[in-house]
Amino acid sequence: MYNLTELRQETDEIIENLLADGSDPEALYIIEHHVAHYDFDKLEKLVVDAYKLGYEISEAEEVEEDGKVFFVCDIVSEINLNADLITAQQKELLPLIEKAGAEYEGWGTYFEDPNGEDDEYGDDGEFFEDQDEDFDFDEEEIVRH
User: Fold this and answer.
1) Which of 6, 7, 97, 104 has the fewest CB atoms within 10 Å, measured from its CB?
2) How confident is the model at residue 49, as a pLDDT?
3) Under the phi-then-psi rule, with left for phi > 0, alpha for psi from -120 to 50, and beta for the rest, what region is 41?
4) Residues 126-137 pLDDT 10s
């Protein structure tokens, strides 16, 4: 079980450091919740459940560490840099992660330059494009609420 108080403290510190470094407080941020699992099939089920909740999913990668192989990916959203929103996402995702037997490795984002002229996400300002091909699952099987 994850300690939500500790996770919130980490979230507050990350946000504080980003803003202290000059990151744009008004920007939309790509929030990547990092997850890992030793079983690809169980990871895939987890990310399908997260996808059903409206998150985007990065492509899974195979990683070897200390002779052990596991799979990692990110559960991704685009939101304001707000600790309450990130905490709400963690409260939504952590039960799915625990149920799957996966490991939550925290979240991350990117510095947003308030003086940047070009939108790094393209002309429409949207980070997400059609990324459904990242995982090989049948979208018709997904029930949206």
Assistant:
1) 6
2) 98
3) alpha
4) 545 544 444 444
Domains observed in the chain: 27-109 (3.30.70.970)
> Looking at 13-22, 60-69, 75-84, 128-137, which range is the least confident one?
128-137
Q: How far apart are CA 47 and CA 135, in angstroms?
A: 9
Residue 144: predicted pLDDT = 31
**Beta-carbon-side half-sphere exposure of residue 115 (alpha carbons within 13 Å):** 1
- How far apart are alpha carbons 43 and 102 in whole angstroms? 7
- Residue type (1 letter), 66: D
105: how many CB neighbours lie within 10 A of its CB? 13
Assess contact for 56 and 76: CB atoms under 8 A: yes
Least confident range from 42-46, 59-63, 134-138: namely 134-138
